[in-house]
Write a structure and sequence with these properties.
Blueprint (H helix, E strand, L loop, with lengths): L5 E4 L2 E4 L7 H11 L5 H9 L4 E3 L2 E3 L9 E3 L2 E2 L11 H11 L7 E6 L5 E5 L8 E5 L11 E6 L2 H9 L3
Antiparallel strand pairs: 1-2, 2-3, 4-5, 6-7, 7-8, 8-9, 9-10
């Protein structure tokens, strides 16, 4: 499905990326989703188009949770067909599994336990990356919660590259 090579983007290596896409293909996906991706995320899609990141672990940006770590198994890209790892396919799947998805949230990745990551595309949350913990693993009360993973896609990559 992806290529055998790895590509570096802002200090993170990506394996198994989907084939490269054009700006027109990205605009088509944005139109279908009714969103406009932040520039830094759009640049990532155009240059890398998803994949398995290394390093994959990072410290969450969630206020009040210093040192809390998370991991990304795979960042979705734009595929020629709607199948696993394609943004449109994965967005359809997450909408089917969720009672209500916040307006403008697009699923962009998953962790080792298949918990989703979202990018905000509208309003105050535009540009930020969020981690949804459906099982309440990070919460002592075991409640599902949405956490700020990073302030932007660029911030997410910087966090992945950060030592310790």
């Amino acid at each position: 499905m992806g290529t055998a090579t790895t590509r570096n983007y802002q200090g993170v290596e990506f394996a198994e990326s989907l084939p490269r896409v054009t700006a027109a293909a990205i605009r088509k996906v944005e139109k279908e989703l009714g969103v406009v991706f932040p520039d830094d995320y759009r640049a990532f899609l155009r240059t890398i188009n998803g994949g398995i990141p290394t390093p994959s672990e990072f410290a969450l940006a969630e206020p009040g949770r210093p040192g809390e770590r998370a991991c990304i198994d795979f960042l979705y890209g734009i595929g020629a067909d709607r199948e696993e790892r394609d943004l449109l396919y994965e967005q359809e799947r997450i909408v089917e599994r969720t009672d209500k998805l916040p307006d403008g949230f697009v699923t962009i990745a998953f962790d080792p336990g298949a918990a989703p990551y979202f990018i905000g595309t509208k309003g105050k949350k535009s540009g930020a990356i969020y981690f949804y913990d459906p099982s309440g693993f990070l919460d002592p009360g075991k409640s599902p919660k949405l956490y700020v993973a990073a302030k932007s896609f660029t911030d997410l990559l910087k966090r992945m590259c950060a030592e310790g």
